[in-house]
Amino acid sequence: MQAFAYQTPASVADAQKAGSGAGARFLAGGQSLLPAMKLGLSAPESLVDLGAIAELKSIRVGNGTITLGAMATHASVAESQAIRDTLPALAELAGNIGDRQVRNRGTIGGSLANNDPAADYPAAVLALGATITTDRRSIAADDFFKGLYETALAEGELITSISFPVPKKAGWHKFKQPASRFSLVGVFVAQTAQGARVGVTGAGPCAFRVKALEDKLSASWAPASCDGVKIDAGGLNSDLHGSADYRAALIPVLARRAVAAAG
Question: Residue 16's domain is classified under what CATH number?
Fold first, then answer.
């Protein structure tokens, strides 16, 4: 691994200053960045470790909204009784990311900023119509994910929190790659006041919504509404774990299971 500077700011303001330098990268959980550095795929000149910033670790539930600090770990979300009582599907998603070590280190902000095509959180962010707040602005979920490892974040922009409106019902189901436990395909469904929303991860270059399923579930929130929905395989991922056609076929099946889990 190459040499680099290492900074541990104690506040968001300090992190902004440290992260503004040329070649600086924010370090959240490090579950993706550090392996990339070891492989020589990323070579930041400076790492700005966000782990000492207490305000980024908060979990707040109230007034119909769950707000997670960007440095909230997967484990803390999974173990939060307030989240389990208010939006159990989100706690279930967090509790099944990777293994225990990954859940204790990985963070929601790091996951979203990295935007791995098989990461779990993006599906929930899309399905729940979340808002990603940064040190500069607020970004709607539908505008955040742009492509393979690409987001709406500008250079040096720092995610500070993610706010989830609590839906009427929500469910999550994924078909995981057994070694990595990433989603081969994962589907998060939500019944909101504006209708159904369906977020899919693992199937394409980044998470996306499925209008055909949303229309069916908005008309009738029932597992059977997912039956017979055909997903176009064009543009979906195809690799040794599953073809694009296989992933397309999985989406309505997992959506059906997610709706059944939601009730």
Answer: 3.30.43.10
| pLDDT tens digits, 43-57 | 889 999 999 999 999
Inside any domain, residue 239: yes
**Total number of domains constituting the chain:** 2
Residue 1 pLDDT: 61
In a domain, 74, yes or no: no
Q: What is the pTM of this model?
A: 0.94
Tokens 């436990």 belong to 181
Mean pLDDT of 224-234: 97
Whole-angstrom Cα distance, residue 110 to residue 106?
7
What's CA 135's distance to the chain center, in Å? 19
Asked whether 15 and 9 are in contact (CB, 8 A), the reply is: yes
Domain span holding position 33: 1-49
pLDDT in tens, 57-78: 999 999 999 999 999 999 999 9
- The share of the chain scoring above pLDDT 90, in percent, equals 87
pLDDT reported for residue 79: 98
Residues sharing a CB contact under 8 Å with residue 182, sequence separation 6 or more, in sequence order:
98, 116, 118, 119, 120, 176, 202
DSSP string of 65-115? EEEEETT-BHHHHHH-HHHHHH-HHHHHHHHTSS-HHHHHH-BHHHHHHHT
DSSP string covering 181-247, please?
Answer: --EEEEEEEEEETTEEEEEEESSSSS-EE-HHHHHHHHH--SGGGGTT-----TT---BTTB-HHHH
